[in-house]
Write a structure and sequence with these properties.
Keywords: Hydrolase, Metal-binding. This is Fumarylacetoacetate hydrolase family protein. GO terms for molecular function: hydrolase activity. With 279 residues, this protein is mainly β. The protein has two domains: 56 residues, no CATH class; 215 residues, Alpha-Beta Complex (Fumarylacetoacetate hydrolase, domain 2), CATH 3.90.850. Strands 1, 2, 3, 4, 5, 6, 7, 10, 11, 13 and 16 form an eleven-stranded mixed sheet that branches. A five-stranded mixed sheet has the order 8-18-17-14-15, with no helix packed on it. Strands 9-12 form a two-stranded antiparallel ribbon.
Length: 279
């Protein structure tokens, strides 16, 4: 199943286009994209025999597939070569911070640059499907609704200001957590643990890796977090970024006004954002 936020309404995405879930289900499921997590399993079952009547999808009409997550977890240094380029040791336990929910944005749009040190970080984003507490790693995928693509824009100057650094604030300006274009259920992937992740800036590939290179896999992250907190339906986990970020260049290279950032994840789709100066 592939779902999206089309003009603020929950939509099922099919090869023929989008189906409005609320209308097509005669009100069984709500119109709000967040209502998908009220009963994920029922929605998944319904989607297998959903009626026809799809409409074409204009990417400009798509919003974030999970517009109001209650909790957002983000994982730092979760690829070995990214840790190396950052000059830091590979973590022995997941390094967890957050991106605040006001940073969530859709898959297409503009991002206002607050300064001259904004970096790019492609990330696979996990969406929790049911309340999860103390789950075993072997059962973790069963608690995941699906996967989406994310970009962890980061203001490095603010992120590294002070001691300890301000990770969460530096990654939470408006538009700094775009996700989409769709939420894809786990059963759609031949191997959800091995997906290609790419950042392309002005047609130049800057990051290109696979999620099989994660230090801590999706099941490991879900199990680890659930031992400490209760994961709630619709929660997001930004799983970390591979090597190739601007901070890792010599000298560092950051985003400039007018540049176009494309974020691509195999089997999910792409995001496209144009960098703009502060108005």
């Amino acid at each position: 199943m592939r779902i999206a936020n089309l003009d603020g309404r929950l939509a099922l995405i099919t090869p023929d286009g989008a189906i409005d879930v609320h209308r097509a289900s005669d009100g069984r499921f709500g119109p709000d994209p967040m209502s998908a997590f009220d009963d994920w399993d029922a929605l998944l079952e319904w989607s297998e025999s959903a009626p026809s009547g799809a409409e074409p999808v204009d990417p400009a009409r798509l919003g974030p597939p999970v517009p109001r997550p209650r909790q957002i977890f983000a994982i730092g240094l979760n690829y070995v070569r990214h840790a190396v380029e950052s000059g830091l040791p590979v973590p022995t336990v997941p390094l967890v911070f957050t991106k605040f929910a006001s940073a969530i944005a859709g898959p297409v749009g503009e991002v206002a640059l607050p300064g001259s040190s904004v970096d790019w970080e492609v990330e696979l984003v996990v969406v929790i499907g049911r309340e999860t507490r103390e789950v075993d790693e072997s059962d973790a995928w069963a608690h995941v609704a699906g996967l989406t693509a994310g970009q962890d824009f980061s203001d490095r100057q603010l992120q590294n200001a002070g001691s300890p650094p301000q990770f969460s604030l530096g990654k939470s300006y408006p538009g700094f957590a775009p996700i989409g274009p769709e939420l894809v259920s786990v059963d759609e992937f031949a191997d959800p643990d091995d997906l290609r992740v790419t950042t392309i800036i002005d047609s130049e590939v800057r990051q290109d890796s696979r999620t099989s290179d994660l230090v801590f896999s999706v099941p490991q992250l879900v199990a680890y977090l659930s031992r400490i907190v209760t994961l709630l339906p619709g929660d997001l986990i930004f799983t970390g970024t591979p090597e190739g970020v601007g901070l890792g260049q010599t000298p560092p290279v950051y985003l400039r006004e007018g540049q176009v950032v494309e974020t691509v994840i195999e089997g999910i789709g792409s995001l496209r954002h144009v960098m703009r100066g502060q108005r």
